[in-house]
Design brief:
Elements lengths: L3 E4 L2 E3 L5 E7 L8 E7 L6 E6 L5 E3 L7 E6 L4 E6 L8 E9 L2 E4 L3 E5 L2
Parallel strand pairs: 2-11
Antiparallel strand pairs: 1-3, 3-8, 4-5, 4-9, 5-6, 7-8, 9-10, 9-11
């Protein structure tokens, strides 16, 4: 079972930037859709961005133009660059690897956008 470890969360002021990283324990990007999700207490986990094995990316409407998902195959790492952050972006962000019926989650990293 692959392991995913997120990092890069923290406290940032509105308008600021953060870059999240998700390191996979082995090479999986050629067979897995990699995604970033976020969740707040009492709410459903929602998709933020994802990237397919072929490199196709998708974004939630709320983050289009502000967030960018990318990956480094040599480092087995997926990134989420978050710019122009808003208070409503505050959440725990989770990395996900999906291959059909097999899905794996990281432990999550907290992002707080506040002045």
């Amino acid at each position: 079972q692959v392991q995913l470890v997120e990092s890069g969360g923290g406290l940032v002021q509105p308008g600021g930037s953060l870059r999240l990283s998700c390191a996979a324990s082995r090479s999986i990007f050629n067979t897995n859709v990699m995604g970033w999700y976020r969740q707040n207490p009492g709410k459903q986990r929602e998709l933020v961005a994802r990237i397919s094995p072929g490199g196709t990316t998708n974004y939630a409407d709320s983050v289009k133009g502000r967030f960018t998902i990318s990956r480094d195959n040599a480092k087995n790492t997926v990134y989420l660059q978050m710019n122009s952050l808003k208070p409503e972006d505050t959440a725990v962000y989770y990395c996900n690897a999906n291959r059909g019926l097999i899905t794996t989650w990281g432990q999550g990293t907290q992002v707080t956008v506040s002045s």
